Amino acid sequence: MRIEVVLAWPERFVSQRLDLPEGATVADALAAAALPEATPGMPCAVYGEVAAPTRLLQEGDRVELLRPLLIDPKDARRRRAKPR
């Protein structure tokens, strides 16, 4: 089955199309992509929905590597709204 692995960070963009056997998981796709940024336990998504490494993939799925949050979104909003 064909799937796509995408890393879209501000400093780097990578898109790889892979042929994997039926029954492949998100972890299998990351291992096959062999991206240095893909570390064990790294958060991933399939079409924007957070996915566990054990999630089974389907034909045409897009696996996205999620970058770590630099700041909690709630804290960021509070800082922007704080009077200056």
From TrEMBL:
Pfam families: Ub-RnfH. InterPro entries: Mopterin_synth/thiamin_S_b, RnfH, RnfH_sf. It comes from the Bacteria. Belongs to the UPF0125 (RnfH) family. PANTHER family: UPF0125 PROTEIN RATB (PTHR37483:SF1). This is UPF0125 protein L3V74_13805.
